[in-house]
Amino acid sequence: MKILVTGSTGFIGSHMCEQLALKGHQVLALVRKQKKWEAINTSSFSNRRFITPIFDSIDPEGSWSWIDRLPNDLDVVVHTAGIVHSHRKSEFYRTNLTATAILVEKLKKKYSFNHKLKFVFLSSLSAIPTIKPEPVGHYGRSKLMAEELIIKNAPSMWDIEIIRPPIVIGPRDLQLLHIFKIVKKGLYPVVGPEGEEKEYSFICVFDLVKYVISQCARNPNISTGVTKIHHPAYPEKITYKELYFEMAKEQGINNLKKITIPRFLVKPVAYTISALTYICPPLSKIPLTVDKSSELLEHKWLSPKSESENKNKDVYKWNLNNSVKVTVEDYNQRGLLN
Ligand SMILES: NC(=O)c1ccc[n+]([C@@H]2O[C@H](COP(=O)([O-])OP(=O)(O)OC[C@H]3O[C@@H](n4cnc5c(N)ncnc54)[C@H](OP(=O)(O)O)[C@@H]3O)[C@@H](O)[C@H]2O)c1
Q: What CATH number is associated with residue 138?
């Protein structure tokens, strides 16, 4: 099949391209930064001859002329490009919502109304309202709004697959790197007295990509304009404490010193950091954002259970131990934990 992947230099997108090509699919990889594409060492990807990079972007102000160069018989779009971390709420809406809306419109213009296309959208567990009636942060809200927009605006011949992963762990991830580094220093910060017992769902990037490929890269000719929402997740939930201690074990750290951060401090600290980023832009690298603080204050972060997706253990080969192990190996190889 011919498959367009956006966000190909990202954590999930790069694995997606690699595994799709391994399966023999022809991958058109949208790449914003050529150097980053080379740094991922895509030359070592197996079957890389099946991957064609398109050096362009989904910037709302961009020319989008690359859409015209897509093959007329494109089968699937796997849209992983997005903003996951930002101190500016407008960035979530600009990329996750506006750019996705433009992508859908441009694809609608390019392909005739009876062209069968499967559109796979990497949304997030954050899009699901937990205790409150809507997502807790702008990231989740931008994803939920994008989901609704895709479902509303997609032509009836498209299949829509919405994927809402929980925390994704695995090689090439940079979101959890700072936590691995804190643990390497022997520290174990938790939010509030019960913070260490907070329950999470997670999935290893290899299982996520395998899931998406098996569920979503099916031949679109056999489908008939359906919309499906998926919640892939490893069947066993983990606690914050288990995650930290696994990270410590794999880095050879025997003792972790717990630091309890009072819940009432989390928001003010996050707001202060975000305000300071206007006068000191390097601070924007600090992972605690206002948006993230809302998620941190939630009491659990669990995928909804579903018979077909979560209970079949055979689908999910990568448990917490193996997932953390390969991630540490990758970080060490790239000297990221030094
Ligand atoms: N990682 C997780 O735990 C997790 C969990 C749930 C859902 N998700 C979702 O899965 C998707 C992928 O996440 P990830 O962890 O792989 O994130 P990531 O590593 O930050 O990758 C995001 C990708 O989007 C690209 N991108 C952002 N803005 C773009 C633009 N204007 N034009 C073109 N490309 C653009 C980035 O390009 P550059 O490389 O050039 O910056 C990057 O390749 C996201 O949509 C995220 O919301 C992730």
A: 3.40.50.720
Give the closest residue (by CA) to ligand 1 atom 28.
Answer: 82
Nearest alpha carbon to residue 316 among 237, 227, 241, 245: 237
Is residue 178 included in any domain, yes or no? no
Question: Residue 200: in which H helix or E strand, if any?
Answer: strand 199-200
Using a cut of 0.90, tell me whether the model's pTM lies above it. Answer: yes
Pocket test for ligand 1, best of 122, 234, 238, 324 (most atoms within 8 A of CB): 122
Q: Tell me the three state secondary structure of residue 190.
A: strand
Instruction: Give the total residue count for the chain.
Output: 338
Closest CA to 232 of 214, 218, 217, 246: 214
Judge whether 245 and 209 are in contact, CB under 8 Å.
no
Contact 218/151 with Cβ under 8 angstroms? no
Closest CA to 140 of 300, 292, 334: 292
- Mean pLDDT in residue range 99-103: 98
For residues 128 and 162, is the Cβ–Cβ distance under 8 A?
no
**Would you say residue 298 lies in a domain?**
no
**E strand or H helix at 216, and its extent?**
helix 205-216
Residue 260: strand pairing partners: 190
Q: Which of 70, 75, 71, 72 is nearest to 24 (CA)?
A: 75
pLDDT tens, position by position, 268-291 = 988 998 888 888 888 888 888 988
Say how many Å lie between the CA of residue 209 and the centre of ligand 1: 14
Q: How many domains does the chain have?
A: 1
Question: In this structure, is residue 253 part of a structural domain?
Answer: no
106, part of any domain: yes
Structural domain of residue 128, as residue ranges? 2-168+204-234+303-317
- In short, whether 10's Cβ falls inside 6 Å of ligand 1 is yes
- Average confidence score pLDDT of the chain: 91
The pLDDT tens digits of the residues spanning 298-333 come to: 888 889 876 556 666 677 999 999 999 999 999 999
